[in-house]
Amino acid sequence: HVKMNYQIIHRLAWKYSNLFYNRCDLVTCPSLGTKNELLENNCKRSILIVPYGIDLTVFDNAKARAVRKSLGGGKLVLHVGRIAHEKNVPYLLECFALAVKKVPEAKLVVVGDGPQLRNVRAKAKSLNLSGNVVFTGMMEHSKLVKSGIFAACDIFVTASTTETGPLVVLEAQANGLVCVSVKGKGMNLIRDGVNGYVAAPGDKKAFAAAIVKLLSDKKTYAKMKKSTVRYVRRFELKRIVLVWEKAYSSLIVKHRHKHY
Questions:
Q1: Which residues neighbour 238 within 8 Å (Cβ) at sequence distance 6 or greater?
Q2: Which of 42, 178, 253, 256 has its CA 20 to 30 A from that of 191?
């Protein structure tokens, strides 16, 4: 989108990045997809996957019922993120328009602001979604986690293909939201058919079908919600902190041996 998507630019960017990476004792990244990309582009150092951690105690959903009422009720689908090119929101709207044909009462709640907001609003209007899309504007993170909006909604969706390990997906899962995403290198938080659905890039029908399935099939939704709540516990902050402590301790011991 900045007209620089050329192979020579990719090679130069990776060469520059590896001048840093390959001087490190350890490189960490949040997902397997990101690790594979580093390896494929000649990162030669040890790579450790350390997923984002989440503090499950920061969320307050006491206002969820009131928020749901203020949004008009119905089947609520949540998207949180910067409204910018890399988040692929226009594509998300196209998928949602297909879902609305099957579930007319569905509403997409878009939380965020950004340079594409005006275009995205126009896109929603052109798809006749004005009555099915609610733009809340930007919400500070400290307020977002206390707002109750996660629990007020039924599912979470994202069409971004550029994530390395999306924290917002983890936050949605921490609140029991079943997620639908586009397949990308950082989307290992969603296990297709287990705790959500992952559609192939460009397959709008599959993405829309996943939304419809979760909003219409109570049995499938309940099963996936249960899996979501169980799966997200492995990303509790206290567990991830232990991984970091072990990594740092190992490096300290290694350098002590070098020194002596």
A1: 53
A2: 42
Residues 6+ apart with CB under 8 A from 27: 21, 38, 43, 45, 46, 47, 48
Sign, CA dihedral 234-181-201-223, equals positive
Give the burial class of 218: count Cβ atoms within 10 A of its Cβ; 0-12 exposed, 13-18 middle, 19 or more buried: exposed
- Per the DSSP assignment, residues forming a β-bridge with 156 are 78, 179
- Integer CA distances (angstroms), 111 to 117, 163, 223, 228, 259, in order: 11, 18, 27, 22, 51
Closest CA to 156 of 139, 141, 171, 146: 171
Give residue-wise pLDDT tens across range 160-175. Answer: 988 777 889 999 999 9
- Label residue 257 exposed, middle or buried (CB < 10 Å: 0-12, 13-18, 19+): exposed
The one-letter amino acid at 113: D
pLDDT for 113-152, tens place per residue?
A: 999 999 999 999 999 999 999 999 999 999 999 999 999 9
